[in-house]
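Hi F.,

I've been meaning to write this up properly since the lab meeting, where we talked about keeping a consistent format for the predictions we share between groups. The idea is simple: the sequence comes first, exactly as it goes in, then the structure tokens exactly as they come out, then a line or two of notes. No screenshots and no reformatting. I'm using this chain as the first example so we have something concrete to point to.
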Amino acid sequence: MTAYEDGPWVGLRPFGRQDYARFFGRDAEKRAVAELWTRHRLTLLVGDSGVGKTSLLHAGAAPYAVASGAQVVPVGDLSYRRSLPAPLITARGRPLFALLSSWQPAEDPTRSIGLTIQEFFKRKLGKAGRGTPLLVAIDGAERMLRRPTAAEPEHRRLRAELEAALRAFPDVHLLLAIRPDAVEAALDLCVALNETPARYDLSPLDRPSAIDALTRPLLGTPLQFDHQVAERLVDVLKVEHGTPGGPRVEPVLLQMLCAELLAGLHGGRTLSAAAKRVLDDVDATLADFCTRTLYTLTSDHGLPTCEIGGWMRRTFTRSPDEASPHEAVPAPRSARPKEVTDAVVRAVEDRHLLKYCRLPDEDGLQLQHPLLARALQRLGESPVAQPEPTADDLLRETEEAMTAGNPKLAEKYARAALATAGKARSDAHVSARITLGDVAYMLGDHGAACQAYEKALEIELLVDAGSPTVTYLYAAIARLHLLQGDMERALGVARASRVNQTAELIARLEVAQSFWRTNRHQAAVKELNVILERDPTHCEALRIRGEIYADWGKSQQAVRDLSSVAISAPPSARAAYILAANVPVTRGEIEELREEGRSHGLVLLYLAQTTHRNGNRDLAAELAEEALLARNPCLSSHHRRQAAKIIRKQ
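Output, unedited:
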């Protein structure tokens, strides 16, 4: 497909690595960021939502650094991925899996299950030689830095592992792309690493760069703007930002304008006619953009259609008198009705209608562009056609919803994707079913998750019975049977998962855990040893084997395995290590693990065994009773006997 057939512009999505040949307007910025990244161990790329950080990294700075001879890892992020069912990736945390798999997108996703950040850096640097910088980046790093997300155990473990890896490998140069409200948290990370970061504040486009971004993608196509039309289109979006070089153009609004031009071209108009329509009433074009965006947001969050738009109009616009046009004004982040939750505000920011600003005494928000003040007054003046989304469009929405921590919204989009895909068996069906399974798993409904994965498996077996996805789904179903306490059934399904040689590792992990939970420790260790003979650093195999050894009473072997995965170890591994190492442990440490693993039967059992050994029989019995009631996972029959024995000895 040529650039013209696809459309000369990318529309509202960020530019990707594949779009570098049509990414214009950021020549100075891509050079500056690449040079800072190459020279400094830590670089902060700071900019508002919609200013173009993702596009600059993927299509600008990273390709420029590669062309300059640097070793650059694909840009990482913390977004949800459908590459593996959720039950297979949650022991060490979804964010860590997301980051590692985004750094190696062409690899089998199972490689990220057993990998640490340190081992990843070691393998990459081994190819380059000592003293050669390895450039890595995390886009959207505010997700792991700012509250309340940063306080979640998964993000704490990710940060701890990242810090340890950066200390171990001084040749790694890390770039964090963040929004302004995460700068303070990013600086805390820099202090912890004893590093002074370089910082690049990404501004909107100046006028010549905006014209380049609009016109240069047309080179080599039959499309050309009439005389001075491109300049006029850019000029209607200019606004004073207080930066050198005069007024600036917000990239996200320029992309919105390009999306409108594309829609006109696809609707049969000439470029001149499409541009004239936009220029004739820019406010109406922006109002249509706002209306479509707010329609989606209110539908997503179950609010009345006017709720978000009305709040934005009241809070972020004002008019000196009835005859004057409305102007944009900032307001405190807290200035909102209770219906407009933090999640809604973040979603409005992510859709590029609002952006962060700092007020004298607190954090604030303001409209992404002053022109939106007038556009907000025209919301709903005329009906706006909502384009019919494809199944792929809806699946992308499920990923966004899962990334934002909104599984209910993800479920809505996944079901819509199923309906849109129709009756034909397809990849879209499988992906939507896997997402529904992931949603149910995140919500703690293991039965519904199992049903969703079984339906996905049924389809995949018809489409491609030998695909790795078949193994992944069998393994996820086996894990769910373990969590529900059906150990023998789990073992049977895990054995059935050995259908694809490339996905053998996942199958062995599940078979090993099923053997262990059916009280066959030796057979379980044998399965894990096969994995560890091939990859002695496989952290998930080491973790599981360490827990098995701790449960088996082989303390020395348990401590050896669990010590090697201590940095990002989940609560079950930490509790097993305490039990095996017989180290002094405070009541506070016990309570912290108890809270983090409050529904995890094995965490609670390990803690019960530790406290019983230390003489606190009342607390041990209390923990053992909680272990018997735990459902994520349930205790196996031989573990239940151990818990009951502690209670009897109270």
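Notes:
The CA atoms of residues 579 and 610 lie 5 Å apart.
The chain has a mean pLDDT of 90.

If this format works for you, I'll send the rest the same way.

G.
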